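User: Can you predict the 3D structure for this chain?
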Amino acid sequence: MAKPVIFAAVSVFAISILAGAVLAQATSAPDYEAIVAAPDRSDADRQTDQRRQPAKMLAFTGVTGGMKILDMAANAGYSTELLARAVGPTGMIYAQDSADVIERFVKDKFDIRAQKPVMKNVVHVVRDFDDPIPPDVSGLDIITFFFFYHDTTYMPVDRAKMNQKMFAALRPGGVLIIADHSAKPGDGTTVGKTLHRIEQSALRQEIEAAGFKLAAEGDFLHHPDDPRDVPVFKPAVPVDEFVLKYQKPM
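Assistant: Here is the predicted structure, written as structure tokens:
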């Protein structure tokens, strides 16, 4: 009678090992360099890669297959597409933009990109910045907010409400990755429209007021030679940019 019991125990153990291996494979980090090097990415996106360091940014986010992500201020979808490639067919990306931004700047750029097969797991969310998340969306793993928070400082956006909405939509332990162009100390939020920059300490104060806890800082877009007193378009030297990872407490 002992043999069947032993066999059953060994079988259960083997199944648990196999299940663990499958789970580890599913949650392991993708090859971010391979994602960036994908041959079907556009030449325009490869030009943007030179200043955006996308492989390092993806690694900093910690995005893996199957995740559910909100990409704030998706615009033409440069980051949205990279995230869609990283989460794979079992993941989901919500790409947010306001109707006003789409009408004035984006036009049909996102819609054209959305026709690519790799974008089939992307939902375009057209909502105001201070109410950016559909009511049926919750438990997000990651929210990204790349190089646009400064724009909300001169737009009719209730940023405190926006930050609270993002906090509520994340699962416990979920992360907000936010990157923007650095302004000089003392500039605060006053140069968002003129220089398209924001002082890091001012942004941090607003984000942390919503309950987010700083988890990490990335220095891969830091350029100390930038005087931070000129607009970010066509600069004489690379623009100094900060990258922050915030976590919703467990």
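The chain has nine helices and seven strands. Confidence is low (pLDDT under 50) at residues 1-26.
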